[in-house]
């Protein structure tokens, strides 16, 4: 099982999901997509894509067997209790302590393995970098348009 925002899907997400899927032979990868309210609480901003759109996008990805929305207003541990996965794969940047998760799982009768996966780098390997790139390109295009309009007058 993995969980995340999955707001702007990029190569890092794909590599993360592929790596999570390979953690167990003949496994089923369950992906929990964060609710809009969770994105606002964790990221401090509105998601680009609505939760239903993000869910649809994640469901379409090859490594994903099951995708579902997280619980509204509940901690990620609660959905782990509901799903009862054998393995939880955490992203390099997820603010969840492996030790806390394992301790909680033990207290709740779950036999759980927790794996922290590394960052899967590419040229643009995070949603914030995608946003920065788009913003920078938009400014460059606007500047070119402005310069072109000034030279045409």
Written description of the protein model:
With 153 residues, this protein is an alpha/beta fold. The protein has two domains: 2-122, Rossmann fold; 124-153. Helix content is 47%, strand content 12%. The chain is built from six helices and five strands. The protein has helices at residues 11-21, 36-43, 51-59, 76-83, 98-107, 127-152; strands at 2-4, 30-33, 66-69, 87-90, 113-116. The strands form two sheets. The chain has a three-stranded parallel sheet with strand order 1-2-3. β4, α5 and β5 form a beta-alpha-beta unit. It is elongated, with a radius of gyration of 19 Å. The termini are far apart. The model has no long low-confidence stretch (mean pLDDT 89).
